[in-house]
Amino acid sequence: MTAPLRIWIVAALVGVGSPLRSEPLAQVLACDTLVNLRVLMSTGERAVAETALPSHPGCRLVPRGRIAAAEHRAMVGGAPYECLSVTGESACAWIWP
Description:
By secondary structure, this protein is an alpha+beta fold. The chain has one domain (24-95). Helices cover 28% and strands 32% of the residues. It contains 3 helices and 5 strands. A 5-stranded antiparallel sheet has the order 2-1-5-4-3. The longest helix is centred in the first third of the chain and has 12 residues, at 3-14. The radius of gyration is 18 Å and the shape is globular.
């Protein structure tokens, strides 16, 4: 196998230059309680949830760089949720998975 062919195969497997690969979001949806997060998630779409944020006082957007380790974990209906510590805040935040 020639070197250019090997490079192309590796690039295809890794996804280099793939338009389907999405970059991580700069901000995450975070709520003070798991109940607040699940109510916000009921739409099933992040864009809709972001527009609904003003009507959910316990939820907000948090820069991804402020998110740290998991403090609490829960399973609801077979789906895992994590309350992650947020730099500069005293309580963890439940994050949209």
